């Protein structure tokens, strides 16, 4: 049996998500002021807070596994450093192919100073609304990892959601531990 407080939290989260998405669309000029209320109710009743994502690549092995893992992702309507924390495993738009999505661990957010292992690279500070994502697979070389070491900082607005559960096989599954 599900407690009443659980349903209440779920409805509040859905309402918050619906309002955030509607406000984002309104500010972006995609909907008019008169359509905001309709979009809130539409997202409230038809929108989903979680979705399934099929992992591609070995960038997050062994934490998530190799190709073929199914991930349960919690949507984040307006990502910012207050709701997406350093150490979270996130799904974001691939900076090189905007139609694809990558799964990586959030390593740094705005204000962090980034220092390279390469002495030729100058240290820099991540600007507002930027983040740095890294692969968990230590076997891969930085050029093979397809993370911020190869394509640079990622806009926070490209983050779609936080990975909360991984299903590798019928017997190998469990929550993804966000640090």
Describe this structure in words.
This protein has three helices and ten strands. The protein is globular, with a radius of gyration of 18 Å. Helix 1 packs across helix 2. The strands form two sheets. Strands 1, 2, 3, 4, 7, 8, 9 and 10 form an eight-stranded antiparallel beta sheet that branches. It is an alpha+beta fold. It has helices at 4-27, 36-46, 148-151, and strands at 50-54, 70-75, 89-93, 101-109, 113-114, 124-125, 130-134, 154-155, 159-167, 173-175.
SSE diagram, text form:
Elements: H1 4-27, H2 36-46, E1 50-54, E2 70-75, E3 89-93, E4 101-109, E5 113-114, E6 124-125, E7 130-134, H3 148-151, E8 154-155, E9 159-167, E10 173-175
Antiparallel strand pairs: 1-2, 2-9, 3-4, 3-9, 4-7, 5-6, 7-8, 9-10
**Runs with pLDDT <50, length 5+?**
none
Structural class by sheet pairing and helices: alpha+beta
Q: Into which percentage range does the β-strand content fall?
A: 25-35%
What is the N-to-C succession of helices and strands? HHEEEEEEEHEEE
How much helicity do the residues have? 10-25%
How far the N terminus sits from the C terminus, by CA atoms, comes to 30 Å
Give me the count of strands: 10
Give the overall shape, derived from the CA principal axes: globular
Radius of gyration: 18 Å
Count of DSSP H/I helices:
3
Average pLDDT figure: 87
Largest sheet report: 8 strands, antiparallel
């Amino acid at each position: 049996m599900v407690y009443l407080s659980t349903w209440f939290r779920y409805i509040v989260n859905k309402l918050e998500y619906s309002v955030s998405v509607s406000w984002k669309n309104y500010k972006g000029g995609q909907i008019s002021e008169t359509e905001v209320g309709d979009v809130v109710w539409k997202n409230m009743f038809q929108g989903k807070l979680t979705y399934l994502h099929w992992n591609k690549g070995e960038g997050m092995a062994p934490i998530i596994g190799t190709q073929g893992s199914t991930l349960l992702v919690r949507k984040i309507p307006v990502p910012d450093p207050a709701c997406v924390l350093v150490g979270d495993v996130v799904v974001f738009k691939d900076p090189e192919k905007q139609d694809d999505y990558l799964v990586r661990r959030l390593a740094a957010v705005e204000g962090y100073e980034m220092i390279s292992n390469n002495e030729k690279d100058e240290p820099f500070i991540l600007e507002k609304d930027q983040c740095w994502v890294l692969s968990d697979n230590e076997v891969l070389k930085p050029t093979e990892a397809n993370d911020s070491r190869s394509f640079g900082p990622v806009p926070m607005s490209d983050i779609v959601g936080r990975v909360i559960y991984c299903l590798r096989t019928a017997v190998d599954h469990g929550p993804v531990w966000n640090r």
